[in-house]
Amino acid sequence: MSLGKKIVGGIVSVLFLSAVVISCDDDNDNPNANNNPYTVNGIANGDQMVPDTVKESGSSTITGTYDPVTGQLIYTTNWANLTGDPIGGGIYNGAAGTVGTAVDTTWFADSLVVNPQSGRLDTMVLTTDQANQLIAGTWYYLLKTIKYPDGEVRGQMTATR
């Protein structure tokens, strides 16, 4: 075999092996492919209501997780010192200090509340747009009472890793 054929054969072999190795890469090294869940939090009070007309000491927290693989948001809402039991509530898309649009206002529609003194566990599956809004920090939640049917406490939600 001539030297030229050996060199060409060697180059072809190297190229073939390189193609095999590259095609077996599963791309898990992509820094943008992070499927870890987000931790969701929020603290609500009357001062965050828009307009700011609530002058009560009520408060609320929301905690949970958002799984970007399944799209599922699982969260617990707790409250204290409201002027009465919550009669409704929901999640809205809107920056702090603005009136937003409803994302999910079904809270307490199936029953007044699970436990009027403490909290409620909920889940929802987010669309891609909803997930982007949550991650961007434009979601807030609020709780309504008989005295404040438009909302007694409001809190921006954050989603962090």
Protein model, in words:
This protein has one domain (38-160): Immunoglobulin-like (Sandwich). An eight-stranded antiparallel β-sheet has the order 5-4-7-8-1-2-3-6. The chain is built from two helices and eight strands. It is α+β, with helices and mostly antiparallel strands and 161 residues long. The longest helix has 21 residues, at 3-23. Helices cover 19% and strands 37% of the residues. It starts with a helix and ends with a strand.
Question: What are the defining features of this structure?
Answer:
161 residues; single chain; 8 strands; 19% helix
Short synopsis of the structure:
This protein has 161 residues and is of the alpha+beta class. It is built from two helices and eight strands.
Helices, strands, pairings?
Elements (H helix, E strand, L loop, with lengths): L2 H21 L14 E8 L13 E9 L4 E9 L7 E6 L7 E7 L11 E7 L2 H9 L2 E6 L8 E8 L1
Helical coverage, percent range: 10-25%
Low-confidence parts: 109-114
- Determine the structural class based on helices, strands and strand pairing: alpha+beta
Number of domains: 1
CATH topology, anyone? Immunoglobulin-like
Rg over CA atoms, rounded to whole Å, is: 26 Å
Order of helices and strands: HEEEEEEHEE
Major beta-sheet overview: 8 strands, antiparallel
Quote the distance from N terminus to C terminus: 60 Å
| Number of helices, counting only DSSP H or I runs of 4 residues or more | 2
Shape: elongated
